[in-house]
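Need residues for this backbone.
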């Protein structure tokens, strides 16, 4: 069996582009000089031979062509922006310095078509006019200029089965930024689409490893371990997005709930468990209060009760303390035993 050889990541090479302002001055001088040379040649044409005139005109046209060609080499970068330099399919480096720059005008302005272009039906695209198809194709081109700023990705609300098989709805927000421009451009087709797909896949993977709630003793749950789940999601995303040269700054759940088909049942279960827990606390405290009352009566010798009357007193006190409604007092006008 042949072993699969994993391709190493594309390393980024940071380069410096020329300052655009001196080059702009030279470019303007070249264009104006070419026009001026043609005018001077036309004025002094009588004193020149045909060969000299032709040579000067050709030189002026060449200067104008070169000046016009150099105009395509200017570009600007804002802070936290970068441009990947691609010359006839070859990666030449990445410019990260902000400002007005000039580079080889033959450097590519785009790095291919977006994968979203294939999602459009062929029939609808064929009905468009040629101008509309051209504009749509240009809109789908991926630029060589990349933003290095932090981005937010809000995932859709996904329906996932948790560790116990219960369907839950979950959503998350991912804060990411491009760290390695070469990997983002050359190692994946479209890094924005790649981040979206891998983020949703990571959210599903993390949600399926934990129970929604009511786990075993000391078991981490989606609802109870918010910070731990966020850390696990971030680590999962870092592994998946490292191929695209993306750094995950933060990942946190924004939505967590049972799926609609089981939400009413789970709500009734939570209510029942809450009632049972509250009753346990009430009964425990009520027994402590009854015991304290009996001990106080015996210690201060307020009244002496036999076992039967103690049992009746305990029963009445527990009914009063554990009842869900206020008791109605009954006044005994006879003796204790009547």
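Answer:
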């Amino acid at each position: 069996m042949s072993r699969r050889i994993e391709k190493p990541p594309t390393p980024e090479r940071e380069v410096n582009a020329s300052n655009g302002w001196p080059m702009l001055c030279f470019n303007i001088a070249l264009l104006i000089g070419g026009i001026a040379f043609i005018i001077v040649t036309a004025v002094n044409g009588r004193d020149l031979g045909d060969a000299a005139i032709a040579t000067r005109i050709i030189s002026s046209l060449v200067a104008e062509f070169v000046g016009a060609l150099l105009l395509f080499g200017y570009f600007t970068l804002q802070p936290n922006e970068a441009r990947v330099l691609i010359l006839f399919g070859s990666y030449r480096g990445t410019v990260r310095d902000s400002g007005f720059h000039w580079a080889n005008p033959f450097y590519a302005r785009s790095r291919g078509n977006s994968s979203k272009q294939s999602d459009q039906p062929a029939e609808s695209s064929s009905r468009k006019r040629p101008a509309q198809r051209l504009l749509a194709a240009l809109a789908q081109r991926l630029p060589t200029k990349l933003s290095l700023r932090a981005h937010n990705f809000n995932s859709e609300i996904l329906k996932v089965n948790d560790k116990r098989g219960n369907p839950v709805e979950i959503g998350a927000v991912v804060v990411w930024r491009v760290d390695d421009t070469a990997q983002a451009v050359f190692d994946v087709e479209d890094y924005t689409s790649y981040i979206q797909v891998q983020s949703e896949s990571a959210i599903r993977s993390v949600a399926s490893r934990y129970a929604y709630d009511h786990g075993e003793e000391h078991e981490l749950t989606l609802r109870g371990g918010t910070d731990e789940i966020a850390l696990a999601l971030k680590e999962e995303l870092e592994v998946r997005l490292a191929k695209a040269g993306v750094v995950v700054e933060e990942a946190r759940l924004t939505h967590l709930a049972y799926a609609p088909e089981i939400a009413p049942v789970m709500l009734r279960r939570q209510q029942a468990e809450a009632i049972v827990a509250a009753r346990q606390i009430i009964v425990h405290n009520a027994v402590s209060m009854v015991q304290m009352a009996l001990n106080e009566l015996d210690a201060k010798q307020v009244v002496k009760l036999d076992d039967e009357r103690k049992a009746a007193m305990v029963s009445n006190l527990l009914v009063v303390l554990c009842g869900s409604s206020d008791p109605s007092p009954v006044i005994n006008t006879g003796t204790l035993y009547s």
